[in-house]
Amino acid sequence: MPSKDIKYTTRNNETFDGYLSEPDGDEKVPGILLITAIFGVDDEMKEISDAWAKDGFVVSTPDIFWRTVPGPTADMEVAFGRFGSFDAEQGILDVEDLVNDLRAQPRCNGKVAVLGFCFGGRYAHLSAARLGVDAAAAYHGTNIDDHLDEVGNVKCPVSFHFGEDDPIVPMEKVEAIKAAYAGHANAEIAVYPGATHNFSMTYKDGYNAEAAKASRDAVLSCFKTM
Whole-model pTM? Predict the structure, then answer.
């Protein structure tokens, strides 16, 4: 299965780094734009990208923090610092460029889902609301509740997954997300008892194998509708 480091170019001809994973073969397949947690494109995110490619997707994983502090980091102060200074509106413009780049990749059939981990959850939701993507999903996604007034614009299937004991995304926020999406026919908002933040990430504190498998199976089913 081929994977490689790549360069992206924005609408203003700025360049930044990322990682591209493709399935074996040469047929055209749907794409997944993976928006990472605050730790960036580290080895864990590359492993996750490769795993989704094995399931039959071309996976684009950008260094979404290139405008602030680029690169992967395990330093919590750096990670939270660049999260706090991130410009969300500029971020969704970059995501739009990234969606367009993925659609133009030789292996992509033009269908694109956005998958967010933690920090990336907001951009999965906003991509569904603003960018006309074909599916959106998130694991323990943060800041989705800041944009619930845009749920009415979401037409694609969505699959959002939360831990019941997550202090970063407490249940009152999850309940607000559930309520906002209640009228959406293809929205799955799932909660896992006993799971906390980062339950889907193998190498992070909080990993929960049962919740990770159940949520991944659900997202895979969602993305296979593309």
Answer: 0.97
